[in-house]
Amino acid sequence: MSAPRRAPRRPVDGVLLLDKPTGLTSNAALQKARWLLNAAKAGHTGTLDPLATGLLPLCFGEATKFAGELLDADKAYRATIRLGVTTDTADAEGHVLETRPVEVDQARLEAVLASFRGGIEQIPPMHSALKRDGKPLYEYARQGIELERKPRRITIHALELLSLEGELAVIDVACSKGTYVRTLAADIGALLGCGAHLAALRRTRIGGLRVEDAVALDVFEALTLEARDRCLAPPDTLLAELPVATLNAAETERVLHGQGVRWEGRSGDRWRYYGINGAFLGLGELSTDGWLNPRRLIASRPEISGSI
C-alpha cells in the first residue's frame, strides 16, 4: 500500500525569524521550514555558515520580494575567539596552521579591540562565497590557490569584551554589511601576536530584527500547522526601518497601477507604502523630481486588507 500523497504546496506569505542551530546550512534550514509550512515559495535574507547559530529571517510568498532589503542592514554577533591557534579558514572548521603560546591579559585585549572600532579595512577571506571570474573564492582555496583580494571598507560600530577565560575570549560585535567576523577574529589574534580563530558565532540582530524574537527549529517543528502559521510576521517586517508613506484613495489607486505619487523627501530614499485601509502595498523610491515610484509591490489579492 503506497504512502498518502502530500498535499500540494500552498500560498504562504510572511517572515519566519528562525534561530538557526549549528551544523545546518542556511539553505537546509530554509528547506526544512518550507516543508513544515508546505509553502509554495521561499527564500532567505543572507546566509549563516553551518558553524554559526542565531537569527536567520526566512521569507515566504510575497515576503520574498523584499528579502534583499536586509542585505545592506547592520548586523550584530556574539563571537567566541580561540587565541593561540590559527586555521586556514580562520574558524573552527579549518585545518590548524600554527599554535602559539598565549600571554594575553584583559587590558591588552581591550587595547587591541579598541583599534578595530570605527571604520577599518578588511581583506575578505579566501574561504568565502565572493566570486572571481564567476567562481567562488572557496573553490580556489580548496585547490590550494591563493588569490589577491582588495581590502574592503567596513565599520565596526561596537566591539565589547564580555569575558576572557584562558584562551577563549567572548565578544559582542555590531558591524556594517560585508564584515567577516572570522577575519576580524584572525586579525585580532595577529595584532595580539599569538594568532586566533573564530571558535563559535551567534547572530543576534539584523537591522531591527532580534534573535530574542526568533523561534528554534525544533520548537517550530513540534507545533501544529496552524501554530506554525501564527509564528509568521507580515512581509513589511523586513522594511521596518524605512519611513511610512500613508496614501489616500487616489494615491493608492495610482500606486497599484504602477504609477508614482508626488512626495516630499530626499532623492533616492525608500518608503514603505500603506493604503487607505492600512494595508501594506509595497516599496517605493523617491526620484530626483519628487515622485515616489513603486519598486516592488505585493500582489493584489484579498489578503492585502488584512494581516497574515
Automatic annotation (TrEMBL):
Catalytic class of the enzyme: isomerase
SUPFAM superfamilies: Pseudouridine synthase (SSF55120), PUA domain-like (SSF88697)
E.C. code: 5.4.99.25
Domain tRNA pseudouridine synthase II TruB subfamily 1 C-terminal: 243-298
Residue ranges of domain tRNA pseudouridylate synthase B C-terminal in the record: 182-239
Keyword Thylakoid attributed: no
Pfam families per the UniProt record, alphabetical: TruB-C_2 (PF09157), TruB_C_2 (PF16198), TruB_N (PF01509)
Keywords: Isomerase, Lyase, tRNA processing
Alphabetical list of InterPro entries matching this protein: PsdUridine_synth_cat_dom_sf (IPR020103), PsdUridine_synth_N (IPR002501), PUA-like_sf (IPR015947), PUA_sf (IPR036974), tRNA_psdUridine_synth_TruB (IPR014780), tRNA_sdUridine_synth_fam1_C (IPR015240), TruB_C (IPR032819)
Annotated ranges, domain Pseudouridine synthase II N-terminal: 34-181
Gene Ontology terms, MF aspect: lyase activity; RNA binding; tRNA pseudouridine(55) synthase activity
Catalytic residues of the enzyme: D49 (nucleophile)
Listed GO biological process terms: mRNA pseudouridine synthesis; tRNA pseudouridine synthesis
Family: Belongs to the pseudouridine synthase TruB family. Type 1 subfamily.
Role noted for this protein: Responsible for synthesis of pseudouridine from uracil-55 in the psi GC loop of transfer RNAs.
PANTHER family: PSEUDOURIDYLATE SYNTHASE TRUB1, TRNA-PSEUDOURIDINE SYNTHASE
Protein known as: tRNA pseudouridine synthase B
Organism, scientific name: Denitratisoma oestradiolicum
